[in-house]
Amino acid sequence: MIHHARTQWLAGAAAMAALVAVAACGSSEPSPGSGNGGSGGSGGSGASMAESSSSSSTGGGPPTSHPTGCKRGVAYGYHSKADMQALSPAVSWWYNWAHEPDEGLKPDVYKMLGVEYVPMVWGGGGLDSARATKIAGEIPDGTSFLLGFNEPNFGEQANLSATQAAALWPHVEAIADARGLALVSPAVNFCGGSCQETDPFKYLDEFFAACEGCRVDYIGIHIYTACQGDGANKARWLINHIETYKTRFDKPFWLTEFACDNAGSLAEQKAFMLDALDYLENEPRIARYAWFSGRPDNVANASLLGDDGVLTELGQAYVDAPQKTCE
């Protein structure tokens, strides 16, 4: 399916990040009952990035701290200051499929709210030594991590074979090295339709085989699955996927997109979310995770935000769910 809001956001980001323009389609998982997920863009309905007149100033004073929780984030590219304020009590990091923050949060709104920005090198279009140097210079100060290519096994996302991604990876490494950033691998997912590779496990195996000696500090993954898992746990299929990743790879994981992709009601999505969060918070191999998304137009009942700066019932559940203390 076409994600109009994401296409609009990436069009704006292209001038900033020189990313490959795409009209992205949803991911599909081979789990029973799974439908289409959404990945690789804003997942928003075009909320204004202008400051809300009712939101309080974030200028001056120390940034808000996060005394509990370092894992929880959000994948979203339409933030306003009010949106970030609403999520900031529990969300400690965010990314927007680009290497620079949203205009509505520049220069340091997110920093003053204590929410870390994580840049991404979305795809391989035009990525060479000169482009890598430019990106490294544009990444804002205060960043600690760099996300790799977004679903390169998808024809309608970064669209790179494993060998192509491996050949370009030294440029991604150069960006990370120039800024002293830890590096997250290409983020993969089960793919249906136009695919470089349908199986994310096989794609990563081929990437690492072709990129021997390359630096990767974390494995990036996306998971969209049904929310009627076996037994009482509604996130069972998501958990099963992560347990499989754990047996295949020995690095910690960043789950940078996840949601139930067939929730027939808010109650189903909320039950899935709460079961998933309980697992993710307590699983030591999960370094960070990010819900998809703020206002997704391609995953039903998954919006964390309603009006500008207003949490939905699901968003309030995401903010309120228990978190383990930072280690």
From TrEMBL:
Residue ranges constituting the Asl1-like glycosyl hydrolase catalytic domain according to the UniProt record: 73-318
Q: Which InterPro entries has this protein been placed in? A: ASL1, Asl1_glyco_hydro_catalytic, GH
- Keywords on record: Hydrolase, Signal
Organism domain of life: Bacteria
Segment Disordered: which positions?
Answer: 27-68
Query: What Pfam families does the record point to?
Result: Glyco_hydro_cc
* Signal peptide range in chain numbering: 1-23
UniProt lists compositionally biased (Gly residues) regions at 34-46
Q: Where is the composition biased (Low complexity)?
A: 47-57
State the Gene3D superfamilies in the record. Answer: Glycosidases
Any single GO molecular-function term of the entry would be:
hydrolase activity
Its protein name is Glycoside hydrolase family protein
Q: Which organism is it from?
A: Polyangium mundeleinium
Q: What is the lineage of its organism?
A: Bacteria, Pseudomonadati, Myxococcota, Polyangia, Polyangiales
